[in-house]
Design brief:
The complex is a heterodimer of chains A (116) and B (113).
Chain A (H helix, E strand, L loop, with lengths): L3 E3 L3 E4 L5 E7 L5 E8 L3 E8 L6 E2 L6 E7 L2 E6 L8 E8 L11 E2 L3 E5 L1
Parallel strand pairs in A: 2-11
Antiparallel strand pairs in A: 1-3, 3-8, 4-5, 4-9, 5-6, 7-8, 9-10, 9-11
Chain B lengths: L2 E3 L4 E5 L4 E3 L2 E3 L6 E7 L6 E7 L7 E2 L2 E6 L4 E6 L8 E8 L5 E3 L3 E6 L1
Parallel strand pairs in B: 2-12
Antiparallel strand pairs in B: 1-4, 3-9, 5-6, 5-10, 7-8, 8-9, 10-11, 10-12
Chain lengths: 116, 113
């Protein structure tokens, strides 16, 4: 079974703090993704990566950055946390099919972040 | 850009009955995947079913099946013999050549005992 783990289930931070969310997958997947999930808005893509050291902006990258130094690990960084970044953050990974289509994504359990 | 629309925010079904969740999408691509994901309360998002656009046959996984209408750009999920464990939020998602997965806003399904 594919396993995607996230470093924390719950996190409370202060405005202005730098926040690191880590995601690790154990299935040698090329693609990794970071989403945020908010009620009524579904899942919105923040960033994704299709290879080590490669990253692409998603739909809402502002206020976030990412790092992928190893294939199995994808980190999301909030440079200076703000209250509007309070949300559920989901990491996912998938194989990459030739032609760019994304295969089935496997999700981590999520990190519920509260910024005070 | 591709869009995925789930127009119903909530549905309810009696245990053992059948329910259909609707999803429409917009795309100009001919090769793509469609997915239904399930997110139980406070639990991990998991894949329910997947459909490849070039396959005419509707995907089926046990009590879950889809009605894929490519020309109409419709992808509904049918849950037969509903069980209490089916209560969850369900997301429809589209995967195309832009290497992204586009999700609908989700529908909350409740199951009445």
């Amino acid at each position: 079974d594919v396993k995607v783990t996230q470093s924390s289930r719950y996190l409370v931070k202060r405005t202005g703090e730098k926040v690191f969310l880590e995601c690790v997958q154990d299935m040698d997947h090329e693609n990794m993704f970071w989403y945020r999930q908010d009620p009524g808005l579904g899942l919105r893509l923040i960033y994704f990566s299709y290879d080590v050291k490669m990253k692409e902006k998603g739909d809402i990258p502002e206020g976030y950055s990412v790092s992928r130094e190893k294939k199995e690990r994808f980190s999301l960084i909030l440079e200076s946390a703000s209250t509007n970044q309070t949300s559920m953050y989901l990491c996912a990974s998938s194989l990459r099919r030739t032609g760019g289509l994304v295969e089935t994504q496997y999700f981590g359990p999520g990190t519920r972040l509260l910024v005070l | 850009a591709q869009t995925v629309t789930q127009s119903q925010p909530e549905m309810s079904v009696q245990e053992a009955e059948t329910v259909t969740l609707s999803c429409t999408y917009d795309t100009s691509e001919s090769d793509y995947y469609l997915f239904w994901y399930k997110q139980p309360p406070s639990r991990q998002m998991i894949l329910v079913i997947r459909q490849e656009a070039y396959k005419q046959q509707n995907a089926t996984e046990n009590r879950f099946s889809v009605n894929f209408q490519k020309a109409a750009k419709s992808f509904s999920l049918k849950i037969s013999d509903s069980q209490l464990g089916d209560a969850a939020m369900y997301f429809c998602a589209y995967s195309g050549a832009n290497s992204k997965l586009t999700f609908g806003k989700g529908i909350t399904l409740s199951v009445r005992p």
